[in-house]
């Protein structure tokens, strides 16, 4: 016998209602990092654009940082934690397997009715998870979703590794996604090149290793193409953008992408990496939270280990 199950009605669209960031208390200078890797403040600034980054203290673990960002985003959106349907955490630096981070965050927030799930697509994690949140809301599985990108990169990098020690930082960024009468999160464009996964991989001790120049070349070639496809999918052109918020991997990558897309000087370019480093899946929401008061469409592009990438246009909260 074939049966027809009852389904839930979704919403016509979804949008980002609020964005917030948590930055660890400890600011770490280039000089402090350079001392361990035979480098210099000058080299780090020239090759990456980074001036400083934050490192988490013992009490600033993945769940506490994620919760702090999420609680602020919920308060800014005026949403009661009890009305959150899902908590999603995008991360690559969580060491545990059985307990994912999202249930800890949901519990700390008091989001007692929320489903809780981690998503892993490394530094591309935020746009992947945002596409998931949008689908949950439009499909009727959720009304309000808390989505956090959170990383404690200092747990998975070697402070003596010249290609990563200066690059990465710790932190969390969160958005609340909720129902909307029209579409405020454009179609996602995504992909992955698993054949090149060795360029960014965990070694046998769980430390992230990177072939920097190879990743650099790949990122600068993939971003303009996926960005154009995301603009097309949203029915916009680069001239319509208010902001460009790529994953904050290296300032040179951001500037090269902006040039390739021929963005006008009126488009706000996210350059949060200068004082935040590369915070993996947290970098896009953190950079969004750091923008000055900007409204209108913003183009997000995530890319990283996998090698995975994803992009979409959103309406800024
Ligand atoms: C990591 C990165 C900044 C290195 O810059 P680069 O210009 O590619 O550096 P290279 O590895 O080609 O090395 C260039 C020179 O700098 C030296 N060097 C490498 N790391 C150094 C460091 N930390 N400090 C000082 N010198 C360094 C090298 O020994 C080399 O010297 P040589 O020319 O005398 O042989 C760059 O490759 C990068 O940003 N890659 C992408 C990283 C990224 O986006 N990762 C995250 C994706 S999520």
Automatic annotation (TrEMBL):
Gene: fabH1
Pfam families according to UniProt: ACP_syn_III, ACP_syn_III_C
Annotated InterPro entries: ACP_syn_III_C, ACP_syn_III_N, Thiolase-like
The organism of origin for this protein: Rugosimonospora africana
Gene3D superfamilies: 3.40.47.10
PANTHER family listed in its UniProt record: 3-OXOACYL-[ACYL-CARRIER-PROTEIN] SYNTHASE 3 (PTHR34069), BETA-KETOACYL-[ACYL-CARRIER-PROTEIN] SYNTHASE III (PTHR34069:SF2)
Domain Beta-ketoacyl-[acyl-carrier-protein] synthase III C-terminal per the UniProt entry, residue ranges: 231-315
Boundaries of every Beta-ketoacyl-[acyl-carrier-protein] synthase III N-terminal domain copy: 117-194
Entry superkingdom: Bacteria
Protein's recorded name: 3-oxoacyl-[acyl-carrier-protein] synthase 3 protein 1
Keyword terms of this UniProt record: Acyltransferase, Transferase
MF-aspect GO terms: 3-oxoacyl-[acyl-carrier-protein] synthase activity
NCBIfam families: PRK09352.1
Gene Ontology biological process terms from the UniProt entry: fatty acid biosynthetic process; secondary metabolite biosynthetic process
Keyword Transcription part of the UniProt annotation: no
